[in-house]
Design goal:
With about 220 residues, the protein is mainly α. The chain has 10 helices and 5 strands, in the order H-H-E-H-H-H-H-E-H-H-H-E-E-E-H. Helix 7 crosses helix 8. The longest helix is centred in the middle third of the chain and has 17 residues.
Amino acid sequence: MDTEFFPGKKPDECPGLLVNLTYIEKSVEVEGPEVRETIRDLVAHHVAITSTLAVFETLGSNRPPMERESAALKTLSPQAAKEYLVVRSHVAERDMGGPMLGKEMRFEREFVAAGELLTAGCDPSGYGGVVPGFGDQRNIELLVEAAFSPVEAIRIATLNGAIYMGRDASIGSIVPGKAADLVVLGGNPAEKIENMDNVELVFKDGLGFDPAKLLQSATELVGLR
């Protein structure tokens, strides 16, 4: 997505998403000098990056997995779901972001290998298909697809954010004396990252919640408020 690589940029003019994506897909390589220099500059200035692979994924064909998309769709308002599916069909035909997802994965691996901090989250960009919660879980799975280990991916999505905010002494990992909201999973994600989806219980501020009831309470609300 990085428009700084686009040639002939003019002040106060955005080159446009499709034009920029096409240029990066064809002309910019993670192993090339421009990206290497960008990584060196980020590391030199101690700039952290937030991985939003779940957003990138929605720009490619046949992604994300149907079962995850179906669950997230139930939380969208009918109008928001309709608009999302219309755009999704156009994206699937053109596969705008398929090659970009792989490049972004390689970029994030190289960034971490260079010694800088990677965090994870899902921002409100894209076209409405990345729902908070679902998107955060999916991002961890995609980090594993990007060749991080399950434990590394979970750390990126939890402790690294606390480190970036300077709050890792009190939050970010399960350690005596720290505060933590928790999920109880029906399987070990370190053995199989898809076990992230098997949420059996959610603890927030010390109270336990039924995940099925939580999802039911959010049905058709995303996009309304």
